[in-house]
Amino acid sequence: MTNPFFITGIIPEPYFCDREKETQQLVRVIENKAHILLTSARRMGKTQLIYHLYEQPAIKMAYHTFYVDIFPTTSLHEMVLFLSKEIYSKIVPKGKKALKFFLNTIKSLTGSLGYDPVTGTPSFDVKLGDIQNPELTLQEIFAYLEAADKPCIFSIDEFQQITHYPEKNVEALLRTYIQRMNNCLFIFAGSNRHILENMFNSSARPFYNSTEQFHLERISKEVYTDFAIQRIHDEDKAITPEAVSLAYDMFEGHTYYVHHILHNAFANANPQKTMEEEDIRKALDEILETRGRSFANTMNKLNFKQKETLVAIAKEGKARGVTSVAFVKKHALKSASSVQYAITTLLEDQLLTYEDDGKQKIYSVADRFFGYWLVKNY
User: Fold this and answer.
1) For residue 41, what is the DSSP state?
2) For the segment 280-327, what is each residue's pLDDT rounded down to a tens digit?
3) By C-alpha distance, which of 39, 41, 37 is closest to 362?
4) 134-147 vs 96-105: helix crossing angle, rounded to 10
5) Quick one: CATH architecture of 303-377?
6) Using CA atoms, how far apart are residues 153 and 141, in angstroms rounded to an integer?
7) Which of 6, 79, 245, 332 is paired with 66 by a 20 to 30 Å CA distance?
């Protein structure tokens, strides 16, 4: 029996929910040789969609595909390390000829590559300190992609991270190389829609007007409900539409969280009993209990003002007018200025996120499970 709700790794085709229209659109853009900007809220399934795109026959057979998430990076050095490591990991399985081509092209790293004592093949043990000239290595990476034996697609997730690098010319540097390339298309993806759209829509920025843009919305409740019921039925279990609806509504259709709840509910389900709403609530309680220590440790690192601001926003769910007198008074906060200061830090630490409705910022806890834990414990 297979749990049909995958929460780690790449989701196999039979268990991938919908996104048919989006997949077709992305394939069409790639076939027309255009770069892509793909944005979505966190945990909406953007990464899985990219991997799903890579598995489409028109893409899988015709392109070399690469994916890297640069969210953990804080400098151009680290980004270059991540890019080169991804290419290396995809090239090694292709054999000695492909590996030799890599080593002959990325010459600035060749001297830092080690060798496996058993197989005698090079192993990627390059350290940050080995990247003495990141601009040179980056130039070599793009030269490699341009000279590859098949067209390439390179997805760079959380691309907005480059705006935080200490090097001030990263956007211009990348754009200079990319606009000269004919053999590689790029998918720039990320969850900070505001920053990314500014990067690609402002005439003052290097990447202005250089991509086809897509924003990934939530899968409709009707489609997701039908999918969940059918997948569970295929595994000889059953669930009520109301239970799926509850899981969907709890997280406003954020695919990862809905999948996670149903994953746990399915794992604990009695095959002789139809899963109901109570099973969904129990699954949430189990997740919050499992992650409770980690959430508590996160709270212990915050000062009092940050804690009370975070809890207030969690209790609102979607918090508007956070510096208004009404909000401050309702949650017994110290002052509007203390709230604003706390929010700045909480955003930097990725504990809060926000969306902009054109009039004001609407804040919420970035990790939806953490938000539920805060409401339950505070």
Assistant:
1) -
2) 999 999 999 999 999 999 999 999 999 999 999 999 999 999 999 999
3) 41
4) 140
5) Orthogonal Bundle (1.10)
6) 13
7) 6
